[in-house]
Structure formats: C-alpha cells, structure tokens
Amino acid sequence: MHTLLNKNDRVLALSNILIAYFAFLIGTLMGLLQVFIRNDKLQLPAWLDYYQILTAHGVLLALVFTTYFIFGFLQTGMSKSLGSFGKKTLLFSWIGFIVMTLGTTLATVMIVLGEASVLYTFYAPLMASPWYYVGLALFVVGTWISSFALIGHYVAWKKQNKGKLSPLFAFMTVSTIILWIIACLGVVATVLFQFIPWAFGLVDTINVELSRSLFWYFGHPLVYFWLLPAYMAWYVVVPKIIGGKVFSDSLARLSFILFILFSIPVGFHHQLVEPGIPAFWKFLQTVLTFMVIIPSLMTAFSMFATFEITGRQNGAKGLFGWFRKLPWHDIRFTSIFIAMFFFIPGGAGGIINASFQLNEVIHNTLWVVGHFHITVGTPVAMTFFGLTFWLIPYLTGRKLTKSMQRLGFAQVITWSIGMLLMSTSQHILGLLGAPRRTAYSGYMDHPSALEWFNGILSNHVTMAIGGTILFLSAMLLIFFVIQALFILPKATTEEEFVEFPMAESDIENTPKFLENWWLWIGVAFVLIIVAYYIPLSDIIHNAPPGSKGFKTW
Ligand code: HAS
C-alpha cells in the first residue's frame, strides 16, 4: 500500500531540490560559455569576465547544486526510514535552509557584481569582496544547522529503539553528516580567521600556505560528501530496483566508516607541487589517500556481487549471464549503472593523480578538469539525475509517465556522449600540457598550443562539442524537473504511485560496534592530528611574510 510522506517533510525536501535545479540551470549555462571561450570562438562583453563565469560555474554546480540536492535526498530518506520529522527537526531544517540560501544569495550576488572572481577554491592571495566570504560562511553554517536537525531526528529514533541498529539509510546519512562536519572545520577556520579579517582590512596580509592547506583539509572530504549520497543510492536504492537485497549490511557500513576515517587526513595530495610542505608529510598523506581508495573498491565489489546474486536468482547462467537479467528498460536503474561505469576510469584517474610522479605531469592541467567531470560530473551527478527521475514524482505524488521515462533515457544518453567527448579530450589535452583555469588557449600560436587544436580527441573543438551536448542534455533534465514538479498528472492508482525504492539488508548479522560513533570520530581525529598537527604548526610558526590581497580581474 503506497503512503505519501508527511506533507511538511515533502515541502522541505522539494524546496531543497528546487534550489538545486535552479543552480544547475545557471551553472550549466556558465559551463557552455566556458568551452566556447577556451575554443577561441566567443568573445565576452567587457562587463563579463571568464573567471567570473568560471567561479559561478564551480560554485553553483560543485557547491550549491550538490549540497541542496543531497539535503533534499537525505531528508526524504530519513523521513521514509525513521518516520516523519518532529516539530524541532522541521524548524531547524528550515532555519538551516534559510541560512544556506542567504549565504548562497550573498555569494552569488558578489560573483555577479564581479567582486568575487576567485574560483570555487578561492585561493589566496586572490582577494574577493569580504561579503563573498561572509556568504560562504553562512552557507556552511546553514548546512550544519540542517545537519544537526537530521542528527536530532536520528537520536530521537535511537531513544525509542534502544539497543537496535538504525536502518542502513539512516546510518549512512549520519556517517555522511559526521564526515561533512569534521571536514568543514578546516574551511570555517580559514574563512573566519583568515579571509574575513583580511578582506575587511582588519589585517594586512594572509598566510597563503596555511589558507590553502586548510582549504584542502576540507576540499578532499568535500568530494566524498558528494560521493557518499551517490553510494547510498548504489547500496540501498539500486538493489531494490533490480529486485534484490543489499549484498552485505556490515560491508556497506564498514565502507562508510572507512570514509569517515580516511577521507580527511589526505588534503596534501592536492598540494603535492607546493614547496612549503615537507616531503614526509606529503608521503604520509599519499599513503592515507591510498587507504581511502579501499572503501570504493569494496563498493565496486558489493555492486558486482548484488548484480550477480540477483541475476542468478532470476535464472542467469554462465559467468556473465546476470548482465542480461538487469532491468535495462528501467531508467531509474540504467542511469545509475552508467554512472557507476564512469567511475571506473574516474577512480583510476584519481589513483594516477595521487601518485607523486604522475601528479607532476597532470597538476594544473586540463587533465584534472577531465578527472572531476568523470567523478563529480557523472558518477555523482548522473546518480542524482537517476534519483531525480523518481524522487520528485515520489514527493509530488505525480505519475512517471512513459514519455517522461523516454525523455530520461535521452537525457542520460546525451549526458554520457557529451561527457565522453568533453572529458576524454580534457584528459588528452592535459597530457599535452594544456593548462586549466586559463581564459586563454592560443599562446600566440606557439607550436605546443597549436597542437591543442589538432587531432580528433586532443582538441579544444571536441571539448566544445561535448560541452554543447552536455548543455542540451541539462536542458532536457530541467524540462523533466519542471514537468515532475508542476505538470505531470497526479497518480491515482496504486500502480501509478512512484515509490522510494529501499532494499532490505541483513542487519541481524551486523556487529553493533559499527554504530559506535564516538569510537570512529575519535579514531578520525587521531589520524587528522597525526597527519596535520606538525606540518600545520610548522606552516604557522615558520611562515614567510604574508601576502597582501590581489585583484587580478
Ligand atoms: Fe579526485 C582532484 C585523487 C576520487 C573530485 N578530484 C580532484 C578535483 C575534484 C575531484 C573536484 O591525488 C579537483 C580539485 C581542484 O579543483 O583542484 N580523487 C582522487 C582519488 C580518488 C578520487 C585517489 N575525486 C574523486 C571523487 C571526486 C573527485 C569521487 C568527486 C566526487 N583527485 C585526486 C587527486 C587530485 C584530485 C590527487 C589532485 C590533482 C591535482 O594535482 O590537482 C579515489 O577516491 C578514487 C577511488 C575510486 C575507485 C573506483 C571504484 C569504482 C567503482 C565503480 C564500480 C562500477 C560498477 C559498474 C559496479 C577506485 C565503485 C560496472 C560496470 C561495468 C559494465 C563493468
């Protein structure tokens, strides 16, 4: 029997998803402009700057779209698996939403005014308007308030269910939130104690190396804050759609705990070329980086096992017979499967990046841009699209019609083609030395730069074609979102109602200590202290003179 979520919970989740897709719309448009500028085919008007649109693209897609969508998804899943939100949870979730939205608006206005073209990494000594940093701080505080609202809901459930392990979805939500809160400590520290006083003129200079290190303390776990909700869909939603169960409840929980432990003390792998950090600490954090690959390999194993076991239950024979038994006609599955497939080269690229000598070749080149488009831009984003196809109809009580499912296939296929073209050419261009974060790709017809316009895949033109297909695909998705929010007919019969697919898991075999949060938070802090205490103290105590701010745009 289908039951709709409580109306208050639905409105909350839908509001988050609405803002996510508004940011997605503008962010993808900014992406389209960029590939044309890099291709030397577009001259921007004097009042618009390449770095301004690059900042808007990064902030709106990587930070705003992802975070709002993640909260919409987590809120829906928590209400579904632990029961409707109480008054306090709702109140705090709304306060969090409002603070996040104020922060987003302030930061976006500063970008639009041309006062904050510092990219989403806002590296010092580039200096934006102080209000941009205030906007970022509000955004993070808003996410914390919304996070604590969800934790409160979980704690209330635990009180009523003493001694029981929480459902897998709730466990994974709490893990993701713990990771997020610990990760944000770095960015909050640098924004509050370095950037805001510096940008308001209260101090003259900034310790650049410290600000970057604190940013990357946050920046790497940030990518897992994007990835974990996608993994939640892979572990919990996909098995249900294919008619199976979670392969192993304990394996799934353990992989999330490993992310809490190992995703934070690894930020130096983004700074391998920076001279201010001694080699030993880079080495240590690189070793820890290889540890954080393990939970992703566990996830890959678990997915293959789920596919195979379910396929065999449905009569599959031979080594790969299960492959044909998967529900390819179901957009909710196919979209996420393709997302998983993209993560094989995406993850392999990450391992390359983390290898010191290879990092020397690819750092600051278009390769890195290619890498993040086949990690966050496809495995994560396309999983979110796959969720969108049923999540919005589930929340609005509308039908997922056949024509909308076909539209979903068109969207996912075009996104895959666009991404294959764009990201493959970005990887190859990167290997040929094409830098990232530059408006300019001609270099006065230098022979090396001319190479970037030859060849089929190693070409800025191919990148632009891929980017254009991606933009068209994004517009298909926006059309779907508008339909699913406001236009599709309401479901009336049991078959028409769209459900939240949540698979069963063998919770009875799961050891209780896996839900001992204080233990894991404690171990995480020990690792963070080991990896960061000495190098950060060194960066603070032996700092060269700080830098004044620069506005290069
Ligand atoms: Fe990364 C740079 C290392 C994962 C995002 N990364 C970035 C940046 C972003 C980003 C945004 O070490 C740029 C930041 C900037 O602006 O400067 N990354 C890694 C490593 C991993 C990794 C080791 N990255 C991600 C994920 C991201 C992401 C996930 C977003 C969501 N990354 C780096 C490094 C840099 C970097 C350096 C700095 C580069 C530089 O110098 O600037 C690992 O977590 C990857 C592990 C993953 C795997 C894959 C497992 C495969 C699975 C799929 C199973 C498939 C199935 C389907 C079941 C080992 C789980 C099968 C189907 C069939 C048909 C076969």
Describe this structure in words.
- The chain has 553 residues and is an all-alpha fold.
- The protein has a domain of 177 residues: Cytochrome c oxidase-like, subunit I domain (Cytochrome C Oxidase, Chain A), CATH 1.20.210.10.
- It contains 17 helices and no strands.
- The longest helix is centred in the middle third of the chain and has 35 residues.
- The protein starts with 6 loop residues before the first helix and ends in a 12-residue tail after the last helix.
- The mean pLDDT is 95.
- Bound molecules: heme-as.
- Heme-as binds next to helix 6, helix 8, helix 10, helix 12 and helix 13.
Tags for this model:
single chain, 553 residues, mainly alpha, Cytochrome C Oxidase, Chain A, 17 helices, 0% strand, binds heme-as, respiratory chain, electron transport, heme, transmembrane helix
Summarize the structure.
With 553 residues, the protein is mainly α. Helix content is 70%, strand content 0%.
Q: Which helices and strands occur, and which strands form pairs?
A:
Layout: H1 7-38, H2 50-82, H3 87-112, H4 130-160, H5 168-199, H6 208-241, H7 249-262, H8 279-313, H9 321-324, H10 331-353, H11 356-362, H12 366-373, H13 376-396, H14 402-431, H15 447-451, H16 460-487, H17 517-541
Bound molecules: heme-as.
Gyration radius, in Å:
23 Å
Which superfamily, in CATH terms, is the homologous superfamily of the domain at 327-503?
Cytochrome c oxidase-like, subunit I domain
Number of helices, counting only DSSP H or I runs of 4 residues or more: 17
**DSSP helix fraction:** over 70%
**What is the C-level CATH assignment of the domain at 327-503?**
Mainly Alpha
Q: Give the N-to-C terminal Cα separation.
A: 59 Å
Strand content: under 5%
| CATH architecture descriptor name of the domain at 327-503 | Up-down Bundle
- Principal-axis shape equals globular
Strand count, sense and barrel status of the largest sheet are: none
Number of strands: 0
Family: Belongs to the heme-copper respiratory oxidase family.
Membrane topology: Multi-pass membrane protein
InterPro entries: Ba3-like_Oxidase_I, Cyt_c_oxase-like_su1_dom, Cyt_c_oxase-like_su1_sf, Cyt_C_Oxase_1, Cyt_c_Oxase_su1_BS
Transmembrane segments: 12-37, 49-71, 91-113, 133-156, 168-196, 216-238, 250-268, 288-310, 331-352, 372-395, 407-429, 461-488, 517-534
